[in-house]
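Bench log, entry 3. Co-assembly request; chain sequences pasted below exactly as received.
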Amino acid sequence: MNSDGTDDTSVLELRDVRKSFGDVTVLDGVTLRAAADSVTCLLGPNGSGKTTLLSIVAGLLDADGGSVERRDDTGRVVGYLPQRPAFRSRFTVQETIEFYGRLVPAEVDVDGILARVGLDGVADRRVEHLSGGMTRLLGLAQATVGSPSLLVLDEPASGLDPQLRRHIASVIADLATDGTAVIVATHDLVATDRIADEVRILDSGSFVASGSPDALRAETGTDSLDDVLDTVIERDETIGVRSGIGGGDG
Amino acid sequence: MRRGARIALIIAQRAFDSVTRSRALLALATGYTFAILGFAWASRGGGYLALSMNLLTPLEVLVPLVAVAVGYRSILDDRLRGELDVLGSYPLAGRTYVLGTFLGRAAALLVVVVVPLVIAMGTVLLFRIERISVLATHATADSPIVYLRMVVLTAAFALVALAIAIGISALSASSRGGLAVAVVTALALVIGLDLGVVAGLAADVVPADVLDVLLAASPLSAYRGLVFELAVGSVAPRAVSGGIDPVAACGSLTLWAVGSLSIAADTVFR
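Structure output for the full assembly:
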C-alpha cells in the first residue's frame, strides 16, 4: 500500500467527487477505486448519476470537486463505450477499427480485436448494416483498441436479447485481464452476478452499498441482487437521504 | 513525420472518405458543375476576362453554399452520434482532429469547386472569336492567367468558407440548430456583412476613407476585391477596381479561416 492509500494494482482512484448541473446535484461525494483485473458493476435506478460518473471516470466531463486519478502507463488511458454507440456510416467494421487503431501509438491487431468480441465474421459489413447488438459489440471492440488499462462501459447490454447479453458478459469478464480494470454501468443483474468482483449501488448521487454480490446478499439477508437493490434503495429512502435527483439516463 | 501530423492525415483521410462516399456530395457537385458550365456557356466567345467577370457573381453565391454544405455537418454529426466522446478517449488533441477534418473536407471541396472551373475554360478555347482580346492598351491582353488567378482566389475563398462552416459545426449542439446557424452564416457571408458596411456608409457611421479596409473584413468583399485587384484588374481598365486594400483582404480571409478553426479546436472536445 502506498502512502496515499493506493496500491500498485490501483488503476483508478476517485475521491469525494462532486458534480452538479445548475441547481441539480448529480454526484455528491463519490469515492471509488478500481483495481487491475477486476470488474466493478455500477447499479442504480435511472437518474442516479451512473452515466455522469462514468463520463467523469472516462475524462469526458470535469468534476466540480474531489480528485480523479487514473493510471497513465499506455498511449490510451481509458477505453470508453457510450450508452448508444454509433459509428460513421459507409465504413466497414474492419475500416472502423483500423481507423481507431491508427490513433494509438501501439500496433493494433484488428483481426484479433474483432475475433475477441465475435465480429470477425462480419468484418467487411458496413456499420449501418449491423444489428443493434452487433453495433454494441463493435463499440466494445473499439473500447479495447490500444489496450487501455481502464475500460468504462455504459450499459453495454441494454436492450439486447438474452443470448447476446450472455455473450457480452463473457467478453467483459475476459477483458478484465492483463492489468485491465473494467467499470460497467448496467441494469443486467444476472450478468452482474456472473462477472462482478465488486458491485457499487448508486442512488441519488451517492453510493449506498458496495461489496461483492455474495457479500451484498449476506449483508441484506436477501437471495438476489434484485432484492438487494430493493432493500438498499428502499432503506436509503426511508432514512430520508436525497431522492429524485440526477440527470440523463444514468 | 511527427505524430500529430500523422494523426491529422489519418483524420483527413477519413474525413475525405466520409464526404466522397456520400451521394449528397455527388448531387451537390453535379448541380454546381451544371450551374458553372451554364454560365460559362452564356459567356462563350468572350475570352477569359469575360468568363471571369460572368462567373464572379455566381461564384460569390455558390461557393459559400457548397462550402457550407460540405462542412457544416462535419463535426456536428460526430457529436450527435456520440463519436466525439469516443474520440475524446483517445490520445487526440482537438486541434489535430479539427485540422484533419478541415484538410479532408477541403480536398473534396476543392475538387468540387475547381474542376468545373477548369472545364469551363474549354468554352473559351472552343468558342473563342478572337485569339487575343485587346482592351485599352497594349498591356491588357486577355490571357488564361487572368482566369487561373481567379480560380486560385476562388479556391482560397472556398477554403475560408469551409473553415467557417467547420467552426459552426463544432459550436452546434443539434442538427436543426447547426443547419439554422449554417444557413444564417451563409447568408451573412453572401450579403449580410456587405449590406452592413453599405448601411453604415449610408448612415454616415462608416467614414468613406476606411471603406476599403472595412469591406475587406467581409470574406465575400475580400474575395471579390482580390479578384478585381489581382485577376480582372490586371488587364481591365483602371475603373475596374476592387475598392479594397489587397493586404487587408488577404489578412481578413486568413483571420476568418484561422479564427474559425481555432474556435473549433478549442470547443470540439468540451
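The radius of gyration of chain A is 18 Å. Chain A is about 30% helix and 25% strand.
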